[in-house]
Design a protein that fits this description.
Blueprint: H1 20-34, E1 38-39, E2 41-44, E3 56-59, E4 77-80, E5 85-88, E6 95-98, E7 103-107, E8 112-114, H2 131-147
Parallel strand pairs: 1-6, 2-3
Antiparallel strand pairs: 3-4, 4-5, 6-7, 7-8
Length: 153
């Protein structure tokens, strides 16, 4: 029987496990970082000097300091939980919010990419719109939602 979940490697408790709270708390921290994943910075290579518990970063391609050894954090998620950094290797399809750039980022299996269509402006409708003008604005809105991957194409 495996002691980790297959997708994210969350610790599973086993019967008679000593110090089960350590495994459980580690899994809770990983879940906390991934649930509604919101990053303070994207492409950050240098760990902050005074991180707060729960701070998460998308690490850049050339990490320094503790993010570079003993295992490189390059292009991974670094989450701080009071006693140290938790390294999370992203899986294809993981979507996170970049607070610094106010944009959604998607891990495509090999790199982080910005999701297109973020913040596309669509003009308000006026009361004297013709049917054709209204249809054009609705189509613009639908295309913006498609480009942002909110609705299917």
């Amino acid at each position: 029987m495996s002691t980790f979940t297959p997708r994210w490697g969350l610790d599973l408790l086993t019967e008679g496990q000593a110090a089960a709270e350590i495994s459980h708390n580690g899994g809770q921290n990983r879940t906390d970082a991934l649930l509604h994943a919101s990053m303070i910075g994207w492409g950050t290579n240098t760990p902050p000097g005074s991180p707060s518990a729960g701070d998460c970063y998308l690490v850049g391609g050339s990490p320094t300091g503790i993010w570079s050894t003993p295992v490189s954090y390059a292009n991974k998620i670094a989450a701080y939980y009071g006693s140290g950094w938790l390294l999370i290797t992203p899986k294809a399809g993981l979507r996170v919010w970049d607070n610094a750039g106010t944009r959604s980022m998607l891990y495509n299996g090999s790199a982080w990419v910005e999701l297109p269509g973020q913040g596309v402006a669509v003009a308000n409708m006026a009361g004297s719109e013709t049917l054709g003008q209204t249809q054009t604005k609705i189509n613009d809105l639908l295309n913006s939602l498609r480009n942002a991957k909110v609705i299917a194409t």
